[in-house]
């Protein structure tokens, strides 16, 4: 009979307290995992324009910090960028906020993205297209809408659905699933039609997507663009991505609300675990006193308590993991595509084990004070 | 007879605030292999204090304590634990079986603490349970056992590590007469295995089992029976 099995028997014996500790861990883990999963999803939405475009370099107005808020730049900049050393190809992108109304449905704001045909660089990822092809955008009034837009417009959106964008007729010719932006849903069309819907001049665009020559150093090309093209700023994709996320997080309070909830989940979990383990230790004080009397060292008893704490953490974490997967599956149908990154899951596990072990010190301190002679006092 | 435990001028004083209570006045007494000794005295006389000091769970205020020839009164708690584990078996008034562990696991516990391999510990524990005729209840948790059965498991736990000294604190206080006979019969059988069994008790029914009686009265250890209600 190992100390591990003894610890497990202590846990199994005191079912009510064990359920209490496990629930504390489960609730903390679930809340932390849920919040981080949602934050990860929101961050993916914040960076969606960048992630979807799959370019190596973004060029935008020189004051740009957030890819969701792109000022208008002149089409001449596109030609200038194309002439910069190291640039293999550069594509224009129009991004504007528009109002869309579906027949018998609601009116909602959308982010309308115009991409250049026939290559459609900067368009939605092909693996997320569930109906139609991007080439369909070359048809009259064609747009690409997302499956989850039906949640916004409250009517089914599919290929063939007609709508008005800023009062102008549009027809869904391509459908994606899960291509969404932070704030508004994305709709794609050709760059000319995007300008038409948004009342922009043929000389207007909002960003230039750049890929570099094979073997060229991206940092060097970014520096070349910044040195030679006035009034715009070139970013490595990952730099604009992190700038976008930090800008949105910094200006929306998402970080503070998520952080506050996580901190409270940790505090609540810590005290639920700590006080329940302490209470359990009080219930078992005679057993621990007996263990000491018959010769168990303080180190053995410390290990016995800490193994229980780790077992509680592992059991609670596993149950919470199942619940988190259930939450993920449950909200996926609403378009909330929560993702739990492996490093986040490992981090939560480490945090939960740590708070369980630290919380066990309440019990350890109490049991440390038990004298072996106490067993002779009835 | 081999001397198993000895206290020389051992005393215990408790201080609570400004109050000093002398629980045990300087006393000397020895205990030998192959004897069952009763420690008898009124409540508060100091007999449990003497047992605690003998059991190395309480440090004496003064004097020396020897267990199998080793002076233990100045050893740190970490070493006393080892002394207890290897030399002393305890039987408590309230049985003190570990509630979450079944009878077999309770009896295996001292061996686990001594790092005896699990298989060997299990064999020895089953043997110890057989000695107290509890092998058929080895899978039962303490709460499923009667008081007498729990005490027999406690005796098995006390003897499984083959200690030379068995200390019992009121082992029959909660038992009915038939269980007293069984438990005392088992403790007496340990004496024939050359163990030293020391029993603190109020229970006059145990006198016939004693090879020797030590009286504790008002903190003094006496070898002669004092004139008190504890006389026959």
3D architecture notes:
The complex is a heterodimer of chains A (378) and B (232). The mean pLDDT of chain A is 90. Chain A has helices spanning 3-13, 15-46, 48-53, 76-82, 149-153, 191-198, 218-228, 237-252, 254-283, 285-293, 298-332, 342-368, and strands at 57-61, 73-74, 87-102, 107-115, 129-131, 142-146, 162-165, 168-176, 185-190, 204-205, 207-212, 232-236. Chain A is of the alpha+beta class and 378 residues long. Chain B has 232 residues and is of the alpha/beta class. Chain B has a domain at 3-97 and 164-222: P-loop containing nucleotide triphosphate hydrolases (Rossmann fold). Helices cover 31% and strands 28% of the residues of chain B. Chain B has a six-stranded mixed sheet with strand order 6-7-8-3-9-10, with helices on both faces. In chain B, strands 2-1-4-5 form a four-stranded antiparallel sheet, with helices on one face. Chain B has helices at 47-54, 77-87, 103-113, 118-131, 147-159, 177-192; strands spanning 3-16, 19-32, 35-40, 62-67, 70-71, 88-91, 165-169, 196-201, 212-217, 220-222. The longest helix of chain B has 16 residues, at 177-192. The two termini of chain B are 29 Å apart. The interface between A and B is medium-sized, with 29 and 36 residues.
Features:
A: 2 domains; two-stranded antiparallel sheet; 12 helices; 19% strand; elongated; B: alpha/beta; 4-stranded antiparallel beta sheet; 6 helices; 10 strands; 31% helix
Strand content of chain B: 25-35%
**How many helical elements of chain B?**
6
Biggest sheet overview of chain B? 6 strands, mixed
Let me know the number of strands of chain A: 12
Q: Helix tally of chain A?
A: 12
What are the low-pLDDT stretches of chain A, counting only 5+ consecutive residues below 50?
Answer: none
Separation of the first and last Cα atoms of chain A:
28 Å
- The mean pLDDT of chain B is 89
Superfamily at the CATH H level of one domain in chain B?
A: P-loop containing nucleotide triphosphate hydrolases
Give the second-level CATH assignment, the architecture of one domain in chain B: 3-Layer(aba) Sandwich
Largest sheet of chain A: 10 strands, mixed
Structural class of the helices, strands and pairings of chain B?
Answer: alpha/beta
* Span of the ends, CA to CA of chain B: 29 Å
Helical coverage of chain A, percent range: 40-55%
Beta-strand content estimate of chain A: 15-25%
Helix content of chain B: 25-40%
* Rg on CA atoms of chain B, Å: 17 Å
Overall outline of chain B: globular
Secondary structure: number of strands of chain B: 10
